[in-house]
Amino acid sequence: MTLLVRLDPERPNRDLIEPAASIIRNGGLVAFPTETVYGLGADAMNEAAVRRIFEAKGRPADNPLIVHVCSTEMLETAAGKLTGKARLLSEKFWPGPLTLVLERNPRIAASVSSGLDTVAVRMPNCRVALDLIRAAGTPVAAPSANASGRPSPTSAAHVLGDLDGRIEMILDGGTTNIGIESTVLDVTTDPPLILRPGWITREQLADSVGQVEIAVSEDEMKRSPGTRHRHYSPRVPVILIEQTTQQSLRQILQEHLAKGKVGFIGHLPAGVDDSSLYAIKLRNAAEDYAHSIYSAFRELEDWGAQVMVVMGIDDEDEGAAVMDRLRRAASEIIRNSK
Ligand code: TXA
Ligand code: MG
After folding, report:
1. Which DSSP string corresponds to 86-130?
2. How far is the CA of 236 from the centre of ligand 1 (A)?
3. pLDDT tens for each residue of 284-328
4. Is there a single domain that holds both residue 295 and residue 189?
């Protein structure tokens, strides 16, 4: 059975945090909120506990986990000595949605890193998460708390939907602030390399440490095993519209409406109205998309959409991270349709 524990995200009660921390110390699994998405946590020093994360999610063993810490002292138990740039970045962006790939401390369970000699670490900017890690007294390995391949959870209800009965506890701290995952930055190379775009942009990173690259080549992508697998996807096909006219968007919608129930995310063109259409209106703004996209996917699924048509947003700054997720979720991408 999975216990759902609701707490005040601003002032989590210690009496509610402590049982969760005790589950972690004893090798169990606790889902908890962060500022990005919910994580599924286990003691990062406990090999058996970490393996249970992979089992509960159905996650491929070659996709390593992020270790969450609450202090620089705890960071030292997870990673080797920080280089100058790594230290600068951690001082500037932690706590926050930046994950640093660092040299691994051998005390971390081997499965956390899926056999790599590096470890991904971040300090979340979320009171519940920090209190939990501090109370557990150990670094907490935590991937997003969804079943593998599914949209990341931004609420406790999403976690329950995917993992009910497979984990001991969910700490419910409400809806997450940002809504998409952290930026993953490899700082074992120089210049540093973005392995997964996220809420902290390349420009923000470059302002602190100069040149920053974005992983594109096959070889570079191998270093971020997670980006190889299909990701963030609802159970039905997602059609991503990157560029189109109102006219052709109407046509695409009509075409699919002739076949069944259509979910839509974005700004609906005038003149489309159909009882088989369910539209979730989102502004063309990175914050709105980040905050709502995963829950919109799940809402349309629950309604019974047979296909989802999703409008893309501007592929720049924070929008680049949103577009990365949408492209990975999509089974078809429409560009330049006239
Ligand atoms: O915002 C987030 O990052 C959320 C919250 C819970 O912190 N976590 C998250 O974890 O998104 P997950 O497991 O869904 O994604 C972790 C990503 C994957 O793309 C994985 O391949 C990469 O981090 N990663 C982890 N360890 C790595 C390592 N040692 N080297 C390269 N990439 C690594
Ligand atoms: Mg994930």
Report:
1. HHHHHHHH-SSSEEEEEEBPTTS-GGGGTT-SEEEEE--S-HHHH
2. 25
3. 999 999 999 999 999 999 999 999 999 999 999 999 999 999 999
4. no
